[in-house]
Amino acid sequence: MLKGIPEILSPELLKVLCEMGHSDRLVIADGNFPVESMGKNAITIRCDGHGVPEILDAILKLFPLDTYVEHPVNLMEVMPGDNVETPIWDTYKEIVAKYDERGDKAVGNIERFAFYEEAKTAYCIISTSEKALYANIMLQKGVVINN
């Protein structure tokens, strides 16, 4: 065990977060996301029994967001015609604001099929048991700066 590391982060996930470099991307996927087919070229990690918000919060305690892009955090847009509410996005924006001074300005949206294409190039995709729809989130890693 280590001090200061959120216990929800498995040793495998910690290793992957450490391996990732500047601009590498990570997807935290909801329970409906096709993790294995999208992640054929990525490391896939299962976090069964957990939701996206708790994993997002734990990761952002350790993971700097990229300061060289406008939106280092991206959400999958709702498809036109889908009558889906996305209150979980507000939760994500609150969590991001705790760790990044840009707050919700760091969060953008990507059209659903474009999100899939971007996910195929991610370094890692985390599978969760999140039940909310359109609850997928993509993070782009920044640089760790020692102060």
UniProtKB/TrEMBL annotation:
GO terms for molecular function: D-ribose pyranase activity; fucose binding; L-fucose mutarotase activity. It is an enzyme of class 5 (isomerase). It comes from the Bacteria. The lineage of its organism: Bacteria, Bacillati, Bacillota, Clostridia, Lachnospirales. GO terms for biological process: fucose metabolic process. This is Fucose isomerase. The keyword Isomerase applies. It catalyses: alpha-L-fucose = beta-L-fucose; beta-D-ribopyranose = beta-D-ribofuranose. The gene is fucU. Keywords: Isomerase. Coiled coil: none annotated. The keyword Flavoprotein does not apply. Its EC number is 5.1.3.-.
